Amino acid sequence: MNCSIFAQDVALFTQNNALGINLKYEIYPLNPNQCGTFVYNRSGSTICVPPNSLERADNKPLTDVKIYYREFHNAEDIVAGDISMNAMIDGKIKTLETVGMFDIQAFDGQTPLRIKAGQKIQVRMGSMTEKTNGVRFFKYNPDKRIWNLLPNDKSINELPTSEDNVPFENVSEWNEGEDAYAWNNDFVAKLYRTAGIQEFGMHNYDYIHNCPDPIMMQAKFESSKKYPNVSVYVVYEGVNTVIYFTPDTTMTVAKETFYIENGKKFKILVVSNDIPRNTNRNKVKNPNYAVSIFNPTSINFDASKFRDKSYTFKTEPVNIQSEEELSSKLKF
After folding, report:
1. Higher per-residue confidence, 310 vs 257
2. Where are the domains of the chain?
């Protein structure tokens, strides 16, 4: 059986997220009656869809099927995706640190599809780290903003081979049992993680994030522009997670909740907007966003001096319209 790789005809789909940033998905056209394998350009990951494995909820015939796919590999990606990194593990909320996550969807025209019972889609994701100890496989619940551990969370881990770095323009066809992957110079996969998924949505390879010395404080935030719906994101240098907080209407996070990890470089991103989080932002015309950043190095801020105390973070407004601009603002 031959599986065509759709590399040259990849389109980009953008969707306005909670930060007012357009998220980019690659789109792959699929003949649902044939096996289709697709290459994600950023990392060389592959998605293999078996023939006759998709269906509509109304059981109508499939006529215009497309696969939507993107990945998240660092804190900037997580903030851009407005993704919570909380998980329910053994009845307790834990913060996760990712070694790579992906979001995969399928549509027939505008109608979302599902994977047929007993079928699986194989995703072989390129990861920027070789870490495997403690790594588990999770699926995201976007309504509750929490990750759930999958019952069968084992994956196959493989080191890259020379065949993984095939130039993109030379890839035309993939035969079952052979490997061929796109090459992207700004991303080098150190490990490929393969799993079969039974549902569309966001999946994540994670381990529990360790914070041995949290500096608890009552945090207040001041910015020149305010809207009623506020989110606070804390990112740390070299840490692939985001600590997320929701202040009350006074722009305050209680000291029992807010913390800074001692001894780590960090930045705080405060996002406020004039529409609630659960609103479909694609149906709102011209929503207003205010994004501001607190950079502790600019004022030689020492969080340890404010343990169990109150502190007002005065954030500087920034203009962020794209993932690239967000990444540049969050770099250390």
Report:
1. 310
2. 2-208, 214-330
**Between 12 and 149, the higher pLDDT residue:** 149
- Looking at beta carbons, which pairs linking 11-19 to residues 24 or more positions away fall under 8 Å? 13/68, 15/282, 16/281, 16/282, 16/287, 17/80, 17/81, 17/82, 17/281, 18/82, 18/231, 18/271, 18/273, 18/277, 18/281, 19/79, 19/80, 19/82, 19/271, 19/289, 19/291, 19/320, 19/326
Give per-residue pLDDT as tens, 224-274: 666 666 788 999 999 999 998 876 655 666 666 899 999 999 999 988 766
pTM of the predicted model, to two decimals?
0.82
Architecture of domain 2-208: Sandwich (2.60)
Question: What pLDDT is recorded for position 18?
Answer: 56
* Amino acid at position 201, single letter: G
- In CATH, 214-330 is 2.60.40: yes
Two domains, one topology: 2-208 and 214-330: no
